[in-house]
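User: quick one, sequence for these tokens?
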């Protein structure tokens, strides 16, 4: 727990922490209008934010929401840039506190983890065990219950001033994903359960971090109480491995029951399968001795790359931007057996110089 005697909130609103938060929030986004506008009067904007945080008058602004369709249709809600600075300032302080309690095999949105290490670990477990039980949490971000999340955070944070900022940020996202949530009733619910504040805006740094906090008690349940040695999680994708298929069926019942305590459900149809059938995971299909990129991923990027080539020819982007995109995708695709796919994708597209 954060010790109150160390004046934790004073550290949170200190100039050094707010400036670091601005640097982190603006990394890779310096050319965007909202960031440039904040930077134009950087000192004034940081002082104003600091004053509001100190006086407890800070109010988050409205979200800008839009849909993306890859890898699946979902609503993204972006907070104003000054609010993203506040999010980073909070996470700078509390993230190390929670990071120490996370299990080794939780891979999303953590330093030193990520997609590729999750794929490596998945393949290691596929070589060690015969069966896998995959569970995908339904409507995960829209379902996250604010009261449950707050209790999880408060147990470690403790400091009432820090919790005040948590409440401000958490409350600003209530209802943002209401259209993406199909009401689910759990045992003991009454008709007022529909009014429970829920949902974390997809796109916030705090949402990504709090999602890990929300399922951290569940992770420890799987590892300690179910004694599942082969387990990994990436956001809302869970994979449990074992050599005993019947034991995985029993664990499925326990997983469903425990997730209900967090007001979460899984997609129907989850069942133990041989790892030799392939494990669909993070855009790849993982086998014990090879990996395959999902076909739709290659098709999708081919369309994207053709569009980038057209934009380069039209003079809308530079050759460096085109090359960076191609190299980034190729480096990602190398985590599967995709030599032929990469040759076919990049070899069949004619790149003409920009038209004058």
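Assistant:
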């Amino acid at each position: 727990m954060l010790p109150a005697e160390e004046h934790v909130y004073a550290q949170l609103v200190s100039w050094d922490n707010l400036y670091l938060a601005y640097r982190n929030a603006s990394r890779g986004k310096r050319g965007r209008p909202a960031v440039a506008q904040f930077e134009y009067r950087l000192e004034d904007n940081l002082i104003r934010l600091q004053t509001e945080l100190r006086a407890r008058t800070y109010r988050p602004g409205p979200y800008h929401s839009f849909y993306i369709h890859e890898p699946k249709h979902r609503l993204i809600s972006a907070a104003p840039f000054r609010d993203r600075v506040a999010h980073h300032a909070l996470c700078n302080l509390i993230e190390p506190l929670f990071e120490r309690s996370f299990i080794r095999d939780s891979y999303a949105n953590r330093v030193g983890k990520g997609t590729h290490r999750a794929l490596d670990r998945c393949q290691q477990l596929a070589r060690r065990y015969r069966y896998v039980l995959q569970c995908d949490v339904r409507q995960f971000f829209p379902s996250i219950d604010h009261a449950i999340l707050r209790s999880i955070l408060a147990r470690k944070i403790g400091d009432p001033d820090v919790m005040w900022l948590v409440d401000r940020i958490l409350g600003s996202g209530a209802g943002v994903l209401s259209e993406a949530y199909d009401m689910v009733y759990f045992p003991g619910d009454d008709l007022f359960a529909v009014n429970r504040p829920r949902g974390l805006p997809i796109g916030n740094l705090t949402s990504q971090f709090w999602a890990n906090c929300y399922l951290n008690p569940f992770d420890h349940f799987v590892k300690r109480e179910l004694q599942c040695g082969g387990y990994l999680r990436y956001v809302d994708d869970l994979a449990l491995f074992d050599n005993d298929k019947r034991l995985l069926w029993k664990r499925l019942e326990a997983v469903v029951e425990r997730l209900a305590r967090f007001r979460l459900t899984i997609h129907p149809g989850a069942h133990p399968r041989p790892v030799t059938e392939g494990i669909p995971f993070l855009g790849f299909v993982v086998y014990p001795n090879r990996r395959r990129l999902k076909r739709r991923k290659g098709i999708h990027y081919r369309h994207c790359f053709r569009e980038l080539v057209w934009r380069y020819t039209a003079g809308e982007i530079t050759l460096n931007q085109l090359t960076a995109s191609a190299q980034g995708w190729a480096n990602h695709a190398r985590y599967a057996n995709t030599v032929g796919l990469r040759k076919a994708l990049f070899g069949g597209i004619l790149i003409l110089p920009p038209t004058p």
